[in-house]
Amino acid sequence: MSAMAGGKRSVEEHAAHVAKLLAAVRSGTRVRIPLSRALHRALAESLDAPIDLPPFRNSQMDGYAVDSASVATVPVTLTVRGVLAAGDGRAEHEPGTALKIMTGAPIPDGADAIVPVEDTEADKRAGTVTVHRTAPAGAYVREAGSDIRTGDPLLPAGTVLAARHIAALAAVGVTDVFVHARPRVAVISTGSELVPAGDALAPGKIYNSNGPALAASAIANGADVVSIDHSDDDPDGFAEMLAHAVAVADVVFTSGGVSRGDFEVVKDTLEPRGGEFLSVAMQPGGPQGTAVVDGIPVLAFPGNPVSALVSFEMFARPALREASGLPAVEYEDRPLTRDLTSISGKRQLLRGRRDGTGVAPASGHGSHLVAGMATADVLIDIPADTTSLKTGDLVKVIPL
Ligand SMILES: Nc1nc2c(c(=O)[nH]1)N[C@H]1C(S)=C(S)[C@@H](COP(=O)(O)OP(=O)(O)OC[C@H]3O[C@@H](n4cnc5c(N)ncnc54)[C@H](O)[C@@H]3O)O[C@H]1N2
Ligand code: MOO
C-alpha cells in the first residue's frame, strides 16, 4: 500500500489515508437552522431575493417630497400638506405642493424628488416651506429594487455567513437557512501528568493544553465539540472514554500515548483493535495513529503540544473544513526574511510569523514550545530534501 520514505510514511500519503478515513464525516449533510444561529456557517443552498430591496420607493433624506417641476426655479414657496414618517403607508402628492418626509418613508405617488431639509426654510404658522435649491427628478429617491430585484441571486451556496450576509438575508425576510452540518468531534487527551487549569500543579504535573487546543481547533474549522475528556495512562479508563466518544461523535481526536514509552495508553488500546501506529516523515508530528472504532474514525495525535496542533493542521483540518462546507485554507508563497537550515529526510513545519510580505521563523524547533507557538501565525513548510534556505528564497506557508 503506502510507500514509505526511509521507513516512514510521507505527509502526503498519511494525509490521503486520513482523508479517506474522514470522508464519511457528515460530508454533504445539511441542516436547516434559524438565521440567528447561522453566523460562520456555510450555506448549503443558493438563495435568490424573495422580495425587492428596497421593497418600495422611499426617501434618502429628511426633507420635503416635491415634483421636480415645481422646484425648477428657486426660491419657491410651497404649501406643506402633511408629514410622512418611516413606517407610514402610501400617500398622494399634489403637484405644486410639498409633503414633509422622513428618511425611509415611502415617496408619495406623484412626487419625484426630495429636497433635503437643509435646503429649505419652513414657516410653520403659514404651513409653507421655501425651497432654496432645485431638485432634479430622482433626487434622493431610493427606487424599489435598486439594491436587488425579486428573483435575482442574493448569495451563492458555499457562502460562509458573516455579519454582512446575515444583514442581506434579514433584509429580505429570511428566517431559516440550509447550512452544512457541523461534524461532531470528541477530544480525549491522555497522560497521567495532566491536570486541568484551575487545579494546583503538584510536582511532576503539567496543565492540559492539548484538550483545549484541539477543541478550539475543531470549532475554528467548523466542527461541534460534543465531548472533551482527559484520561490518565490507565487503559480501562481510556477505553471507557473512547466508547463514550465514538457513541456521540463523528470523529475522535486523541493526544499523547502513541510513541515508544512504557505507558502508551492510546497505542496499547487501539493497536490490538486494528489501529495503525506509524511514523510520518515530518517534524513535529512524527508519531501518528489512526483507527476505526465502532465505525468512527479516531486520529491519535502525538502528545507534544506543538506536535498535536501541527498534526491537526496537516491532517484533520482539511477534512473538517470540507465536511462543514468551509473553503480550504489557502497556502501562500512568501520570501524568507532570514536564512534557515533544516534537517534532511523529514518535512519540517516550522512555526513562522508573517513579516510584511515575507515570513520569518518564530519560536524554536522544540515540540514542547507551546508559548512560542502562540507567537506564530503560519507554519513554514520546508520540503524533506531541503536543508538550507537563504533570505529571499520563496517558501510555502500555511496560515494557522
Ligand atoms: N524513544 C522515543 N521517544 C520519543 C519518540 C521516539 O520516536 N522515540 N518520539 C518523540 C516525539 S517526536 C513525540 S511527538 C512524542 C510523542 O509522544 P506521545 O504521543 O506518546 O506523547 P506523550 O509521551 O504522552 O507526551 C509527550 C509530551 O507531551 C506532553 N503532553 C502530552 N499531552 C499533553 C497535553 N494534553 N497537554 C500538554 N502537554 C502534553 C507530555 O507531558 C510530554 O512531555 O514522543 C517523543 N518520544
Ligand atoms: O515529531 Mo514529535 O511530534 O516532534 O515532537
From TrEMBL:
It is an enzyme of class 2 (transferase). It catalyses: adenylyl-molybdopterin + molybdate = Mo-molybdopterin + AMP + H(+). Transmembrane segments: none annotated. The keyword Transferase applies. Its EC number is 2.10.1.1. Keywords: Magnesium, Metal-binding, Molybdenum, Molybdenum cofactor biosynthesis, Transferase. It holds the Pfam family MoeA_C. Pathway: Cofactor biosynthesis; molybdopterin biosynthesis. Residues 186-322 form the MoaB/Mog domain. Its cofactor is Mg(2+). The keyword Magnesium applies. Catalyzes the insertion of molybdate into adenylated molybdopterin with the concomitant release of AMP. NCBIfam families: Glp_gephyrin (NF045515), molyb_syn (TIGR00177). Belongs to the MoeA family. This is Molybdopterin molybdenumtransferase. It comes from Rhodococcus chondri.
